[in-house]
What we know:
Layout: H1 2-12, H2 16-38, H3 41-60, H4 69-87, H5 98-103, H6 108-126, H7 130-141, H8 146-153, H9 157-175
Helix pairs in contact: 1-2, 2-3, 2-4, 2-7, 3-4, 4-8, 7-9, 8-9
Amino acid sequence: MTDDTSLLRRAQSYDAAALAELYDRYALRMYAYIYRRVGDAALAEDLTSELFLRVLRAIRNERAWRDSFTAWIYRIAHNLVVDQHRRRLTTPDLPLDEELLSSDEEGPDRAVESAADCEHLRRAIARLTPEQQEVLALRFGEGLTAREIAEIVRKTTGAVEALQHRALASLRRILTGETDR
């Protein structure tokens, strides 16, 4: 991690190359995380841009990370997603992805069925608590460990594992049609 530490120190002193390297290291990961949370590519791009603007402002105002840059940047991304969900009044329909339909080897029927499955899963996940959604996104979407997630969400590892267990149990009930409330 000394490479990251050195890079972060250089970024704090406004080294343009270090800032660019931070962007290169984290932009795709942050975009993927945000996209999984909002389900809209254009919105995920906008929020990723806003994320890096906030990172730059925080560095400029000396309000940057204290312990873990990775945990800090995920917290900022999480806050952006939460803010976006608060602003959104209704959930828009997902657009038909013609590129997916034309490139699917099994034909358009399978592509539509797959898109419907994804939408069904997205709606089921939306019924979980925000904390449960966050833990699942970080665990399965980002592939982080419970310990890493605990650092990001500022909970104990045990609390994260319990949240994950309850989230998966609730998701299973939702998907099988049982009531979860």
